Amino acid sequence: MNLAATGMAVAVAIGVLTALAACVVPERAAVVGVGTALTGVAAMVSGVAALAGGSFSVVLPGLLPLSGVSLALDPLGGLFVAVTGGVAVAAGVYGVSYADTVELRARGVQVALPVFVVAMVLVPAASNVSTLLVCWELMALASLVLVVAEHRRGPRVASAGRWYAVMTHLGFVSVLIGLMVFVAHAGDDSFAALREAGRHLSPAAAGVVFVAALGGFGSKAGIVPLHAWLPRAHPEAPSHVSALMSAAMVNLGVYGLVRVGVDLLGGGAAWWWLLVLALGAVSAVYGILQAAMSSDLKRLLGQSTTENMGLVLIGVGAAGLFASSGERVLAGLALTAALLHVVGHAAFKTLLFLAAGSVLHATGSRDLDELGGLRPVMPVTTAAFGLGALAASALPPGTAFVSEWLLLQALIHGLPAGGVAAAIAMPVAVAAVALTAGLAVATFVKAFGVGFLAKPRSEAAVGAHESPPTMLAGMGVAALACVVLALWPGGVLPAVQAAAGATAVSGDVTLRLSQVNGALSPVLLTLGLVAALVVTVGAVRAVAGRKARREARLWDCGGGPMSARMEYTATSFAEPLQRVFDDVVQPELDVDVSHHEESRYLVRAVEYRRKVPDRIERRLYEPVLSLITAWGRAGRGLASGSVHRYLGYGFYAVCGVLILLAVTR
Question: Taking a C-beta distance cutoff of 8 angstroms, is the pair 496, 343 a contact?
Answer without folding.
Answer: yes
